[in-house]
Design goal:
Blueprint lengths: L6 H23 L11 E8 L2 E3 L2 E5 L4 E7 L4 E5 L4 E5 L5 E5 L5 E6 L12 E7 L1
């Protein structure tokens, strides 16, 4: 004849069975881990006389992203004061920016290194949404 389990023994077995499941669920559903804090979304941006490709990107407020900047021809700038961006993009030398926008809006980003006759028209828009 089996003796009934003591209540504390039963709780230990239950905890041992459920704890791994709870840990796995927490790790896979934890907030802020859609792209992972360690693996932010990467956006490729190419500079070439006299424009950026793409010429418009949309970011989410509070979401960390990496902007991977390259130049196909000459040295360009990538400047947007309100987003605290001021980078130099040299040909053959990729530049990476980690950015977490905190303000929603449309931000005109310009090339701030003279790159030729149409340099003044070289810009792109970064849109940050709620």
């Amino acid at each position: 004849m089996e003796l009934p389990m003591k209540r504390t023994q039963w709780l230990k077995y239950l905890l041992a069975a459920l704890l791994p499941l709870v840990i796995v669920l927490f790790l896979t559903v934890a907030p802020g881990n859609a792209h992972g804090e360690n693996n932010p979304r990467v956006i490729e941006i190419t500079a070439k006389r006299f424009g950026f490709t793409p010429n418009q990107i949309t970011l989410k407020k509070g979401e960390t992203v990496k902007l991977h900047l390259t130049s196909e021809d000459v040295t360009h700038g990538f400047f947007m004061k309100k987003l605290k961006i001021d980078e130099v993009i040299e040909p053959g030398k990729p530049t990476e920016i980690t950015l977490t926008p905190e303000t929603a809006g449309n931000f005109l980003t310009i090339c701030d290194h003279f790159c030729g006759v149409n340099h003044g028209n070289m810009n792109m828009t970064i849109t940050v949404v709620e």
